[in-house]
User: Fold this.
Amino acid sequence: MADERQIRLLPPELQNQIAAGEVVERPSSVLKELVENALDADATRVRIQIRNGGQSFIKVSDNGMGIDADQLELAVTRHATSKLESMLDLQEIRSFGFRGEALPSIASVSRFRIASSREDGEGSALEVLHGRITRQDRTAMPRGTEVEVSDLFANVPARLKFLKQPATEARKCAELVTRIALANPHVDFEFLNGDRSVHRFLSGQDLAQRLAAIWPREVVEALHAVNYADGTFGVTGLVGDPAMAQARPDRILIYVNDRPVQDKVIMSAIREAYRGRILGKESPQAVVFLQIPPDEVDVNVHPAKTEVRFQDEGAIFRAVRRAVLQTLEDNFRRPDIVDHAWPLSVGQVHQTLPAMEARLPEEFAPSRFDSAQSASSYEEPWPQKFPSSTAAQQLFETPDSTYPPASPSAPAEPHPPAPGLHQYLGQFARTYLILAAENEITLIDQHAAHERILFNMLRTQGSHGQRRPLLMPLEMPLHTAQSSRAQEIWAELEGLGFSLELAPGPRLLINSIPALLTPSKAREFLEDILTEKAISMDDLWAVMACKAAIKAGDILSADEALALVDAWQRIPDKDYCPHGRPIALHWGVNELEKMFKRRS
Ligand code: ADP
Ligand code: MG
Assistant:
């Protein structure tokens, strides 16, 4: 009895079978380990064959450096590896394998054969059945290594049960080979399912040529290169035309240091770059390779190494988003925005006011202004891709294509009052609009009124702010406090329409700004916002409305003034600006009579 309670080491075969549970899940995971071993051995040609979805047979042969005859037994021994000598190496992993687990694990759950040679001529071979070496001999072969895995999981019925139909397992194997082939263009890959050659990737093909084997031609033809370097990070790859976005997220392929991975940080950075260009439920096509110093990424999270952990997720996110965004902006830019939009000098801004009602939601836009109609023509490229409403788009589109305002011949005078509206008499002190109704006279603070209109619209549209990409990013030096403040409200700023990036310094790189603001106003806005402490969304909108609104001192034409009054008339809370100051002052006839002492 006492014997049974003694702690004993598990027999090695059992240890390996347990380890196999982690690494070897299905034929494609076996394939992954074998192909990565071939690449670690500097092979330039890798030939892969499977039968029956890989369950009956997997063979991987390469022309790599091979294994010495006296090392072959070690290669199938647990924790034996030629790739790692100390914990120090573990922090700087460059090769695919490093645990020395794969071959013994695979060999413990299959009928396994490995043959290898350091040079053309004679090599040595080893056969293993369910973890026990059954045969060792010499064999004639060229330089390289050949591994055969037969009857996978025959001794682990529980695993066998979980395998899918052979066709499904075969598809997973083909996918795996392709993913690896995309990252290794200098290597020649051939993949055979049974005796049928499924993929042949010739060495020297570029990424697009290899993608053409798996993606439709029109998708591949619409890809554009990503090429970005930022300090120690590099981001390369290809990304698709937003117009070709698709329902399934199955064409986003991510690599870290040429290792295919599933990674949420990079995935969301790619999606973020496409935000506003595709619908939230759509997915782009993207193949993204991140190069990063090995000590900044932990690839040792999972035995199958498809997950990684980054030291600085934020930096990775920003680099990838920036990289993809740059390609999108360079290749899929809306010409209307960049060609006509800015720069307008700040002094000119108020002159765009007649066009302003095209920024207003439909119910606010006075129909008598031609600019409101012509503004819609330049929304053409994107509207169907935008989740936001037409009203919100109008709000955030500045119809600069109609600048200077259309209908120069339209008579400015006289101005009949709109229904229930005052008659516009003129501007006083370049700040107040004078209106007369039957029984009262009104002074409107033009800035406060415009501010309130814009504030209401910002609030209605929430965080779907249209962004205006800048040809040249703006730079803004930050204090440390401002930089942490920026990070706190990053999402809100992005929601307003900014695309920002933190650079060393710290500096803020401004790549896009809300369409409502000019570049200089956008900068002012950020300066204000980043020095404030606690800020609610309402506060952000208020500051933005304030920056975007016409100013006291701006001369308004009659048309401009009327457009403003018209819009202001229609908003619900028109008496006070977002800061609580009154927008309008009224004097009724009775009041005036008292003031003039016409009546007592
Ligand atoms: P790891 O790759 O983690 O080192 P493996 O069990 O996959 O562990 O492989 C064990 C060792 O066998 C490797 O370190 C390598 O030295 C050798 N080896 C495996 N496959 C090959 C191959 N195709 N070519 C050359 N050497 C190989
Ligand atoms: Mg390995």
Notes: Residues 334-419 have pLDDT under 50 and may be disordered. The pocket of magnesium ion (ligand 2) is lined by residues 33, 36-37, 97, 102 (CB under 6 Å). The CA atoms of residues 186 and 203 lie 5 Å apart.
